[in-house]
Write a structure and sequence with these properties.
Layout (H helix, E strand, L loop, with lengths): L1 E7 L2 E9 L5 E7 L4 H14 L6 E3 L3 H14 L5 E3 L5 H14 L8 H18 L13 H9 L1
Parallel strand pairs: 4-5
Antiparallel strand pairs: 1-2, 2-3
């Protein structure tokens, strides 16, 4: 679980991203604030998409730590947490796909448009990485996969 920043109307907004150990994107969320409530909201959404993680690797953010501890208290399960910038390298490398496209754009004007564009970027990244389910034995182009996801 990691946070990167996206420029929206001259202000930096927070893009939460979760990636599993294989480098597959679990979830992402663009929000204006980086606090315990935002981190908890993102963590709960990521857990809803997948099961409880075996362990979580995060940066040394106090908001992320507090969110994980509050989820642990509610679920009554201990989730091992690793706070190391070197162990978080899979997520850091995965930010490149978003940054490579958004950096030349010089930011966004509105938060809702940034969310829509980033959702498209993340979807295309997932398609390119082969993370979208497709019927067995069926080979599809990225455009056909995107059309299938959109329909």
């Amino acid at each position: 679980m990691e946070v990167t920043y996206i420029n929206v109307s001259g202000h930096w907004k927070h893009l939460y991203r979760a990636v599993d150990r294989d480098g597959d994107t679990v979830d992402f969320l663009l929000i204006p604030n980086r606090d315990k409530a935002a981190a908890r909201r993102f963590l709960e959404a990521a857990i809803d998409l997948r099961d409880l993680p075996e362990n979580i690797t995060i940066d040394k953010s106090g908001a992320n730590t507090a969110a994980i501890e509050s989820v642990e208290a509610d679920v009554c399960i201990d989730i091992p947490m690793c706070q190391s910038k070197y162990h978080n390298n899979i997520v850091e490398q995965d930010h490149r796909a978003v940054k490579r496209i958004t950096r030349p754009m010089l930011g966004f004007k509105l938060l809702w448009s940034a969310r829509i564009v980033i959702a498209g970027i993340e979807t295309m990244h997932m398609i390119k990485q082969g993370q979208i389910d497709r019927p067995d034995g069926l080979t599809m182009s990225a455009a056909n996969q995107l059309y299938r996801v959109a329909a």
